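User: I'm putting together notes for a lab meeting next week and I want to include a structural view of one of the chains we've been expressing. I don't have a solved structure, so I'd like a prediction I can at least talk through. The sequence is below, exactly as it appears in our construct file.
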Amino acid sequence: MGLMPLVLGGCSMLQTVYNNSPDLAYWWIDRFVDVNTEQRPVLIDDLQAYQQWHRSTQLPRYAQWLQQLQSMALQDVSEEQSCKVYRDIWESLPTLADTADAGMARLAGSLTAEQLEHLRNKLERHHRDWRRDWLEPAADELLKKRIQRTRERVEDFYGRLDAQQQRLLRQQAERSPYDVSLGEAIRLRRQEDIVATLRGLQQQRPAPDELRRQIRGLLQRSVMSPAPAHQAYVDRLNDFNCRAMAQMHNSTSAEQRQSALKRLQKYERDARALMAR
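Assistant: Thanks for the context. Below is the predicted structure for the 277-residue chain, given as structure tokens.
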């Protein structure tokens, strides 16, 4: 319980965003690789096909999770219950990556040297912005920022937190294994992997099956790190977070739980409406 504020981000326009997701994904990809006129229609078709796959296969899973969370919303939950739901959702991510391999392989195989350089520069600028926000400020300022971000998500779901719940939130943030230096190392490894893999593909010009295999590997590595220390850190952080979510939920009042239930019901209605399109 408590995972959905993080998964769904409190979006009040879920259906609108989802229905426009191919356009939003195209805009995001275009920012990084500067899509050309030949690539554009192929990429748009692939993004629309991916959305249709997601609508028919993944949204029913989300609706089931939302029903499960509704059954938990009005009662205390154990840390084990919270972590099981968290793991189920987290373990669905590789499927999302695997199914994107065909479309991403088509795009990757058509990228030019200029587009790869554009991508490298964009990733570097993006990382500099991230460092400015999360590495350069003082430790106490970063802690305050993390607490504020989490509080906004939790309050969007449960309603206003009282003073005791705010203290709990701070204590959790202070005890969290979150490590900004490890977070940066994970980001840099992933970015270097993207650039190196795409450059290698441009030089090798492999057959379509091999191209798709390498893109699938890249997508899988973006979800499950090949660096044991990095993946161990992610697992440790996930375990802490799902337990913290159970603790926060168990601190909520009956009124707050009703608020959470109504939000989960709304999300389920949205998911089923999207499935019906």
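A couple of points you could mention at the meeting. Residues 124 and 191 are 9 Å apart (CA to CA). Confidence is low (pLDDT under 50) at residues 2-12.

User: Perfect, that's what I needed.
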